[in-house]
Amino acid sequence: MISTLYKAFRKVKGMLFMPFYNIYAKVIFFLNDVNYGKDLKVLGVMKVRVTRRGKVTIGDNFCANSGENFNVIGRQQKTIFWVEGELSIGDNVGMSSTALICNHKITIGNDVKLGGGVCVYDTDFHNLDPEIRRDPTLDKKTSGKAEVNIGDNAFLGAHTTILKGVTIGENSVVGACSLVSKSIPANQIWAGNPAKFIKEL
């Protein structure tokens, strides 16, 4: 009986809070000058930071789960947009506890699915030279950056990390927990650390 009441309470509480998350997302997008399309759906509280030179556009039917209550597969975190460059997300894109760190340019096509805990980085964050790393300003300014492109219908499995300069071809699938450091052609499955070709689709 107590267990049933608890489950009912949990469900009602979730239903009551759901509209709040969408409202919060719209407010935080507005404050960061994020352009988004129709039918936005966000569950949980996202972390969004767009600098003065940053630009974010999101297509229609965007769906994001953010945080431990909405991504219960482990390694939960908020969905994070940290944008100092240009981030473009197409239509019908879904993501869960995803981190998009955009210092240069990240482009995500239509109908892309990013599994729980996926991280996409278009920067090395730091210079490879230890002398330069001693100067935080110079370190950040000289770190490697290269555009990331994720093609239409791509699916990135949970906890995958995509590094700078990578293109994921349309329809391709990346297995869970993969580290992708080089580009993947269209219509292929890759997996591993580092990710390697598995088979054609």
What is the H level of CATH, i.e. the homologous superfamily?
Answer: Hexapeptide repeat proteins
Kindly report the CATH topology: UDP N-Acetylglucosamine Acyltransferase, domain 1
Radius of gyration: 18 Å
Taking strands numbered 1, 2, ... along the chain, how are they ordered across the largest sheet? 2-5-8-11-14-17-19-20
Terminal Cα span: 49 Å
* Global mean pLDDT: 91
Portion in helices = 10-25%
The number of helical segments is 3
Strand-residue fraction?
Answer: 25-35%
Tell me what the CATH architecture is.
3 Solenoid
Number of strands: 20
Uncertain spans: none
CATH class: Mainly Beta
Please describe the biggest sheet, giving its number of strands, its sense, and whether it closes into a barrel: 8 strands, mixed
Order of helices and strands: HEEEEEEEEEEEEHHEEEEEEEE
Structural category:
alpha/beta
Q: What sort of overall outline do the alpha carbons produce when their principal axes are compared? A: globular
What report would you give on this structure?
- The chain has 201 residues and is an alpha/beta fold.
- The chain has a single domain (2-200), classed as Hexapeptide repeat proteins (UDP N-Acetylglucosamine Acyltransferase, domain 1), CATH 2.160.10.
- 20% of the residues lie in helices and 32% in strands.
- The strands form 3 sheets. The chain has an 8-stranded mixed sheet with strand order 2-5-8-11-14-17-19-20. A 6-stranded parallel sheet has the order 1-4-7-10-13-16, with no helix packed on it. A 6-stranded parallel sheet has the order 3-6-9-12-15-18, with no helix packed on it.
- The longest helix is centred in the first third of the chain and has 30 residues, at 2-31.
- The protein starts with a helix and ends with a strand.
- The mean pLDDT is 91.
